[in-house]
Amino acid sequence: MEDNEAADAGSLIVLFDRAQGAGSALSGAAAAADSDALDAAAWSLLVDLYDLGAAVVPRAEDLLLRAAEVGHTAVAAQLLDWCPAAAAGPGGSTALCLAARWGHLPVVRLLLRRGADPNGGRVLRPLLFACEGGDGNAGVVGALLEAGADSGVRCAGGARLSDRLREAGSWGLLALLS
Fold first, then answer.
1. Domains of the chain
2. Taking the chain, what is the end-to-end CA distance rounded to the nearest angstrom?
3. What is the spatial distance between Cα 37 and Cα 96, in angstroms, rounded to a whole number?
4. What is the pLDDT of residues 139-174, one digit of tens each?
5. Smallest Cα–Cα separation from 68: which of 108, 112, 12?
6. Nearest Cα to 78, choosing from 30, 45, 124?
7. Which residues are in coiled coils (predicted)?
8. 10 Å Cβ neighbour count for 100?
């Protein structure tokens, strides 16, 4: 890929978003329905751009956050070779928080194995993010608790997480916290 082609791409995040879309033109691998093949193709293009220089390359941490948010385990695994699992965005959200929020259990497990703190920071806690996804995130909540997440964490305003789950009728998650 030539430098001008990389400049036209704008940023790796834009390319990453294009690569994960169903209509992307990422070679034969992207046309496959297999998500690992799509991840590999997206990663290949990301590496090509990354190798071209910093002018079009956002921080690896930003890409890790995006990969965690959309559930691209293979891409996240590669990015963890370039940045820490505890990488956080400008608002303080970590990759673990984002993967937990959207129920991406394989990414959550990967980040935990690679050293992400199951209790996150002082304010933004992965367990709170996971519980936002409701009972459908029971696997993620279970993985976080198994990794040592504090089940007594408090929500914004000081309310106990268990009280919020009870109010929301998330009985499956509430059972996991008990």
1. 85-178 (1.25.40.20)
2. 54
3. 23
4. 999 999 999 999 988 888 888 899 999 998 999 999
5. 108
6. 45
7. none
8. 33
